[in-house]
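ingest -> validate -> predict -> emit
validate: passed (alphabet ok, no gaps, 221 aa)
predict: started
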Amino acid sequence: MQCLFCKEEIIDGAIKCKHCGSMIGDAPLPRTAGQADFAALFGNAARIWKENLADLVLLTLVFMLVVWVPIANIGFIAGYARSLFKVARGQGKARVGDLFDAWDCFGNLFLFFLINLIIAVVLHAVPFFGSLASIALGFVVLPGAFLIIDKGTGTIDAYKWCFETIQADFANWLLAYVAGNVIIFGGVVALFIGIIFTAPLGQLIFIQQYERMKPDGKPGF
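emit:
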Protein backbone atom coordinates (compact mmCIF):
# COMPACT_ATOMS: atom_id res chain seq x y z
CA MET A 1 0.00 0.00 0.00
CA GLN A 2 0.99 3.65 -0.34
CA CYS A 3 1.30 6.27 2.39
CA LEU A 4 -1.57 8.76 2.06
CA PHE A 5 0.82 11.67 2.58
CA CYS A 6 4.17 10.98 0.86
CA LYS A 7 3.00 8.24 -1.57
CA GLU A 8 5.93 5.96 -0.71
CA GLU A 9 5.35 2.21 -0.49
CA ILE A 10 4.73 0.87 3.01
CA ILE A 11 3.70 -2.46 4.49
CA ASP A 12 -0.01 -3.25 4.26
CA GLY A 13 -1.75 -2.36 7.52
CA ALA A 14 1.10 -0.16 8.74
CA ILE A 15 0.17 2.34 11.44
CA LYS A 16 3.06 4.74 10.82
CA CYS A 17 4.86 5.55 7.56
CA LYS A 18 8.58 4.73 7.80
CA HIS A 19 9.38 7.40 5.20
CA CYS A 20 7.60 10.57 6.40
CA GLY A 21 6.47 9.56 9.89
CA SER A 22 2.77 10.09 9.22
CA MET A 23 0.37 8.20 11.46
CA ILE A 24 -1.56 6.17 8.90
CA GLY A 25 -3.77 4.41 11.40
CA ASP A 26 -5.12 7.67 12.79
CA ALA A 27 -5.65 9.36 9.44
CA PRO A 28 -8.99 8.87 7.70
CA LEU A 29 -8.90 7.52 4.17
CA PRO A 30 -9.28 9.99 1.29
CA ARG A 31 -12.88 10.75 0.39
CA THR A 32 -11.98 10.15 -3.24
CA ALA A 33 -8.91 8.86 -5.04
CA GLY A 34 -7.66 12.42 -5.58
CA GLN A 35 -8.78 14.26 -2.45
CA ALA A 36 -7.57 13.63 1.10
CA ASP A 37 -9.20 14.82 4.29
CA PHE A 38 -7.62 18.22 4.96
CA ALA A 39 -8.18 17.82 8.69
CA ALA A 40 -5.83 14.80 8.69
CA LEU A 41 -3.27 16.71 6.65
CA PHE A 42 -3.43 19.66 9.06
CA GLY A 43 -3.21 17.36 12.07
CA ASN A 44 -0.15 15.63 10.70
CA ALA A 45 1.59 18.96 10.07
CA ALA A 46 0.74 20.12 13.61
CA ARG A 47 2.10 16.89 15.11
CA ILE A 48 5.41 17.20 13.26
CA TRP A 49 5.64 20.87 14.26
CA LYS A 50 5.01 20.11 17.93
CA GLU A 51 7.50 17.24 18.07
CA ASN A 52 10.28 19.38 16.54
CA LEU A 53 9.31 22.81 17.84
CA ALA A 54 12.61 23.82 19.48
CA ASP A 55 14.70 22.95 16.41
CA LEU A 56 12.19 24.59 14.06
CA VAL A 57 12.11 27.83 16.07
CA LEU A 58 15.91 28.09 16.02
CA LEU A 59 16.02 27.31 12.29
CA THR A 60 13.36 29.93 11.56
CA LEU A 61 15.02 32.56 13.74
CA VAL A 62 18.30 32.27 11.84
CA PHE A 63 16.41 32.13 8.53
CA MET A 64 14.68 35.42 9.34
CA LEU A 65 18.08 37.01 9.97
CA VAL A 66 19.65 35.92 6.66
CA VAL A 67 16.67 35.98 4.29
CA TRP A 68 17.06 39.75 3.85
CA VAL A 69 20.32 39.28 1.91
CA PRO A 70 19.50 40.02 -1.77
CA ILE A 71 19.93 37.23 -4.33
CA ALA A 72 21.48 34.86 -1.80
CA ASN A 73 18.12 34.69 -0.05
CA ILE A 74 16.93 32.39 -2.87
CA GLY A 75 19.39 29.79 -1.65
CA PHE A 76 18.38 30.31 1.97
CA ILE A 77 14.71 29.83 1.06
CA ALA A 78 15.61 26.54 -0.62
CA GLY A 79 17.66 25.47 2.40
CA TYR A 80 14.82 26.29 4.78
CA ALA A 81 12.31 24.31 2.73
CA ARG A 82 14.63 21.32 2.43
CA SER A 83 15.18 21.29 6.18
CA LEU A 84 11.42 21.15 6.67
CA PHE A 85 11.17 18.39 4.05
CA LYS A 86 13.74 16.41 6.03
CA VAL A 87 11.78 16.81 9.26
CA ALA A 88 8.43 16.03 7.60
CA ARG A 89 9.86 12.83 6.10
CA GLY A 90 11.40 11.65 9.36
CA GLN A 91 14.91 11.87 7.89
CA GLY A 92 16.45 13.94 10.66
CA LYS A 93 16.20 17.10 12.72
CA ALA A 94 16.11 20.67 11.45
CA ARG A 95 19.60 22.15 11.56
CA VAL A 96 20.72 25.75 11.02
CA GLY A 97 23.39 24.45 8.66
CA ASP A 98 20.64 23.26 6.30
CA LEU A 99 20.03 26.89 5.32
CA PHE A 100 23.40 27.03 3.59
CA ASP A 101 23.29 23.67 1.84
CA ALA A 102 20.79 23.97 -1.03
CA TRP A 103 22.63 25.83 -3.76
CA ASP A 104 22.23 23.08 -6.35
CA CYS A 105 18.74 24.33 -7.28
CA PHE A 106 19.63 28.03 -7.08
CA GLY A 107 19.61 28.71 -10.83
CA ASN A 108 16.20 27.18 -11.56
CA LEU A 109 14.64 28.68 -8.44
CA PHE A 110 16.07 32.14 -9.15
CA LEU A 111 14.66 32.09 -12.68
CA PHE A 112 11.30 30.87 -11.36
CA PHE A 113 11.12 33.68 -8.79
CA LEU A 114 12.29 36.29 -11.30
CA ILE A 115 9.59 35.38 -13.82
CA ASN A 116 6.93 35.45 -11.09
CA LEU A 117 8.21 38.82 -9.86
CA ILE A 118 7.98 40.32 -13.36
CA ILE A 119 4.45 38.99 -13.79
CA ALA A 120 3.44 40.36 -10.36
CA VAL A 121 4.83 43.83 -11.20
CA VAL A 122 2.87 43.88 -14.45
CA LEU A 123 -0.30 42.76 -12.67
CA HIS A 124 0.03 45.45 -10.00
CA ALA A 125 -0.10 48.06 -12.74
CA VAL A 126 -3.77 47.16 -13.17
CA PRO A 127 -5.86 48.91 -10.49
CA PHE A 128 -7.58 46.61 -7.93
CA PHE A 129 -7.94 43.55 -10.14
CA GLY A 130 -4.18 43.45 -10.60
CA SER A 131 -3.69 43.01 -6.85
CA LEU A 132 -6.22 40.18 -6.76
CA ALA A 133 -4.54 38.53 -9.73
CA SER A 134 -1.18 38.86 -7.99
CA ILE A 135 -2.54 37.00 -4.94
CA ALA A 136 -3.89 34.30 -7.23
CA LEU A 137 -0.47 34.05 -8.87
CA GLY A 138 1.13 33.28 -5.52
CA PHE A 139 -1.31 30.44 -5.00
CA VAL A 140 -0.80 28.98 -8.47
CA VAL A 141 3.01 28.98 -8.47
CA LEU A 142 3.60 27.79 -4.89
CA PRO A 143 3.70 24.06 -5.78
CA GLY A 144 6.29 24.71 -8.48
CA ALA A 145 8.71 26.29 -6.01
CA PHE A 146 8.53 23.21 -3.80
CA LEU A 147 9.07 20.94 -6.81
CA ILE A 148 12.21 22.83 -7.86
CA ILE A 149 13.59 22.77 -4.33
CA ASP A 150 12.77 19.10 -3.76
CA LYS A 151 13.64 17.57 -7.13
CA GLY A 152 15.69 20.19 -8.96
CA THR A 153 13.05 20.35 -11.68
CA GLY A 154 13.46 22.85 -14.51
CA THR A 155 11.47 26.07 -14.53
CA ILE A 156 9.17 25.15 -17.42
CA ASP A 157 8.38 21.72 -15.97
CA ALA A 158 7.66 23.38 -12.62
CA TYR A 159 5.08 25.68 -14.22
CA LYS A 160 3.47 22.75 -16.03
CA TRP A 161 3.17 20.79 -12.80
CA CYS A 162 1.71 23.79 -10.95
CA PHE A 163 -1.31 23.81 -13.23
CA GLU A 164 -1.62 20.02 -13.32
CA THR A 165 -1.53 19.47 -9.56
CA ILE A 166 -3.86 22.37 -8.71
CA GLN A 167 -6.32 21.18 -11.31
CA ALA A 168 -6.15 17.66 -9.86
CA ASP A 169 -6.70 18.73 -6.22
CA PHE A 170 -7.79 22.37 -6.19
CA ALA A 171 -9.70 22.26 -2.89
CA ASN A 172 -6.86 20.89 -0.77
CA TRP A 173 -4.23 23.14 -2.35
CA LEU A 174 -6.46 26.14 -1.65
CA LEU A 175 -7.10 25.05 1.93
CA ALA A 176 -3.39 24.50 2.51
CA TYR A 177 -2.55 27.89 0.98
CA VAL A 178 -5.15 29.80 3.00
CA ALA A 179 -4.54 27.97 6.29
CA GLY A 180 -0.77 28.19 5.98
CA ASN A 181 -0.77 31.90 5.20
CA VAL A 182 -3.29 32.74 7.93
CA ILE A 183 -1.10 30.95 10.48
CA ILE A 184 2.05 32.69 9.26
CA PHE A 185 0.30 36.09 9.24
CA GLY A 186 -0.84 35.42 12.81
CA GLY A 187 2.81 35.32 13.83
CA VAL A 188 3.45 38.66 12.13
CA VAL A 189 0.55 40.22 14.03
CA ALA A 190 1.89 38.83 17.31
CA LEU A 191 4.59 41.52 17.53
CA PHE A 192 6.32 39.89 14.55
CA ILE A 193 8.46 37.66 16.81
CA GLY A 194 5.62 35.15 16.76
CA ILE A 195 6.51 34.33 13.18
CA ILE A 196 9.39 32.13 14.34
CA PHE A 197 6.72 29.84 15.80
CA THR A 198 4.04 30.13 13.13
CA ALA A 199 6.17 30.12 9.96
CA PRO A 200 7.33 26.49 10.27
CA LEU A 201 3.78 25.29 10.96
CA GLY A 202 2.43 27.18 7.96
CA GLN A 203 5.17 25.76 5.76
CA LEU A 204 4.62 22.22 7.05
CA ILE A 205 0.97 22.48 5.98
CA PHE A 206 2.12 23.38 2.46
CA ILE A 207 4.64 20.55 2.53
CA GLN A 208 2.10 17.95 3.65
CA GLN A 209 -0.05 18.84 0.66
CA TYR A 210 3.00 18.73 -1.61
CA GLU A 211 3.94 15.31 -0.24
CA ARG A 212 0.53 13.97 -1.21
CA MET A 213 0.71 15.30 -4.74
CA LYS A 214 4.40 15.26 -5.65
CA PRO A 215 5.24 13.52 -8.94
CA ASP A 216 7.06 10.22 -8.81
CA GLY A 217 10.42 9.64 -10.37
CA LYS A 218 13.50 11.80 -10.85
CA PRO A 219 13.80 15.48 -11.74
CA GLY A 220 11.96 16.27 -14.93
CA PHE A 221 9.38 13.54 -14.15
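DSSP finds eight helices and no strands in the chain.
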